[in-house]
Every structure is written in structure tokens, then in C-alpha cells.
Fold this sequence. Notes:
By secondary structure, this protein is mostly helical. It contains seven helices and no strands.
Amino acid sequence: xxxxxxxxxxxxxxxxxxxxxxxxxxxxxxxxxxxxxxxxxxxxxxxxxxxxxxxxxxxxxxxxxxxxxxxxxxxxxxxxxxxxxxxxxxxxxxxxxxxxxxxxxxxxxxxxxxxxxxxxxxxxxxxxxxxxxxxxxxxxxxxxxxxxxx
Length: 150
């Protein structure tokens, strides 16, 4: 049997959460499916796994930003809800890259493009992004590229 698509895995997880009456998990999974469905309806296409990974990665980034704002406003209760959603979303992403793997990806991309200055950052990121999407915090990757090119 072939490997299930990411969308199918998320739908199956939603059914499991319904059966288990796990409301916080169910809520997070429904948010993921709603975002995927919104993009599919807006663009009138069926999304592939790579595109869904991009959507999930964007959702992670939004939740991390929300956590920072909630913690700055002393709303730890809301930050905890966002963290729980992050934990559920991360279950559907590939294994995270280690610091060494991210550094190696960036170094390989810099040598491949011959990048030397900040003007070359876009070319480096175009090589790194598909390999790191959903597996690393792209803000962290971007910061690493900036530090190596400056």
C-alpha cells in the first residue's frame, strides 16, 4: 500500500480525536483542515503534500508570534492554548532538522550559488527553503544565512 497523503492523515487524526472526545486536539486539527480547504477553494486546486507542509509551517509561525504577544501581555492561558496547537501541528510535519543539519544545508547552498554578499541571500534561500520547509523555523534559517553572508 502506498503512503497516505498528508491530508488523509490529518483527516484520519480528526476522526480519532472525535472518537477519543479530545476537544483541544480536535480543535487544532479542524483549524489545519479548514486552512487547507480554504486554500483549495480559493485557488480551485487539489493541494499536494509539499503545499500542505507550507501551510502548516505558516500556521506554526503564526502561533509562535501569538505566543510572544500573549506572553508580553501576561496572558499565559492563551499562550498555553497556542502551544498546544503547535504540538498538534508538529505531529504532521517531518522530523525537525538539527542545528548541524541546518548549518550544513546553508553552507552547501552558499557554496553552490557562490554567494558572497547579502545581495545573494535570495538565491541561497531559494535552495534552502524547499529542503527545510516544515522541518526548521525559517526565521532561524534566514538569520543564519544573514550572519554567514555579512
